[in-house]
Amino acid sequence: MAPPLDWRVAAFSLAAALLTGILFGLVPALQASKLDLVSALKEAGNRSGTSRRHNRARSSLVVAEVALALVLVAGAALLIRTFVGLSNAQPGLDPHKVLTMLTSLTSGAYSSTGKIDAFTADTLRRIESIPGVEAAATAVLLPGIGYGIDLPFNIAGKPPSKGEQYNGDEQYRYISGHYFQVFRIPLLRGRRFTETDTGNSAPVVIINQHMAKHYWPNQDPVGQVITIGQGLGPQFADPPRQIVGVVGTVKEAGVAVGDIGVMYIPAAQVPEGMMELARQLIPLAWVVRTPGDPMALHVAVQHEIQTVDASMTVSRVQPMEKVLASTVARQNFNMLLLTIFAVIALLLAAIGIYGVMSYSVEQRTQEIGIRMALGSSRGDVLKLMLGAGLKLAGMGVAIGLALAYLLTRFLASLLFSVKAGDPWTLAAVAGILALVALIATYIPARRAAATDPGQALHYQ
């Protein structure tokens, strides 16, 4: 069903269209009302039949069109490169053939970490017994969708920097045991979580490679002890945890953000206060790896979840590939919108150059005939007309490059893998505009070169 029309948007569009028509109709009307007859007669006596004042106005408009077109095309090119960069960026996990869904744990039946762990452990065993399921897990957040929970921590035996209370502050994720297997996140050192990492066992944590390199650049972090959230309040109270493994870096906050440090905690060991806070605010994510189409198993997976708890509502059932694709949807929309504007601006610039040159050829027909009668060749006329058109285009490109270099700075927050004002991008865009201008100029210039001198001399 199509969304209803927003009357405010429609009213604004109508007002903008009317205002544009009035403004662009009023300017020539005012010029005509102030016509100087003496000047007009002098200009009409000119052999070329053109008004210098009108020529300047038309030329200025073409220069402005080319300059603005270059700015828009440059912005679109930067966003296209951003989208390509985001599409090709490696998220650090394998999203293919992974089913995802969300469930809410706000019910009073899940008022403690132990109750949640008992529910998820039983359900995950059932899901992994479904034919075609390779591994299943739960997590507080799906990877790649943006920043989530971040908590400060201290490293045992390493005092914080002067004036600081903590050694660092990184992302906090609690997961079930087979999370790394579902997403095929490589284990680099130590071990993964196992069924023995329960609420009654020694507190452990796994960190990613980015965090390991940042805090232990010359040491093996496995075996080190960290304390998370100390001093933040009773709900964050957490005992010292030993690092038991290092895994590959996943772009948990999205590929556009890049690498960030992450601390992975076994879901069974999450402090009660932290679990209570998280379950009220964040739905629990379920992830299931299959050998084929993940959506083919979503009914069976939902059935097992609701077999354990018939009141459990399942939402946002979708493949992990679609989840990651949605994270670049904003950049994709921005790129599409600006590309449309850029194409329109490019067409307007081409039409403007073509129109001015065609009109110039018509007005200078007698002049061209005289030049050719006096010995100018068709090549000379072609060069003359090409030079006039490319001069306007060159001025527009020069102004547009300066404007693009300044204005693309406003796109900096939307860019990835390319910098605002990238010289190669600007050079490529300038080349495209120059080529468009050459084609738009060549057609009327060629027509001028084909003018018959005899007919041109009698042209009125």
Structural class computed from helices and strand pairing: alpha+beta
Give the H and E element order: HHHEHEEEHEEHEEEHEHEHHHHHH
Q: Given the C-alpha coordinates, what overall shape results? A: elongated
Helix content: 40-55%
* Share in β-strands: 5-15%
Backbone CA Rg: 34 Å
Question: Number of domains in the coordinates?
Answer: 2
Please tell me the overall pLDDT: 84
Count of discrete alpha- or pi-helical segments spanning 4 or more residues: 14
Uncertain spans, ≥5 residues at pLDDT below 50?
43-50
How would a crystallographer describe the biggest sheet? 6 strands, mixed, barrel
> What is the spatial order of strands in the main beta sheet?
3-4-9-6-8-7
- Tell me the total number of β-strands: 11
What's the N-to-C terminus distance? 60 Å
Overview of the structural elements:
This protein has two domains: about 50-90 and about 330-455, no CATH class; about 105-310, no CATH class. It is built from 14 helices and eleven strands. It is of the alpha+beta class and about 450 residues long. Helix content is about 50%, strand content about 15%. The longest helix is centred in the N-terminal third of the chain and has 37 residues, at about 50-90. The strands form two sheets. Strands 3-4-9-6-8-7 form a six-stranded mixed barrel. A four-stranded antiparallel beta sheet has the order 2-10-1-11. The relative contact order is 0.17. It has helices at about 5-35, 35-45, 50-90, 115-130, 180, 210-215, 270-280, 300-310, 320-325, 330-365, 365-375, 380-405, 425-450, 455, and strands spanning about 100-105, 135-140, 150-155, 170-175, 185-190, 205-210, 225-230, 240-245, 260-265, 285-290, 315-320.
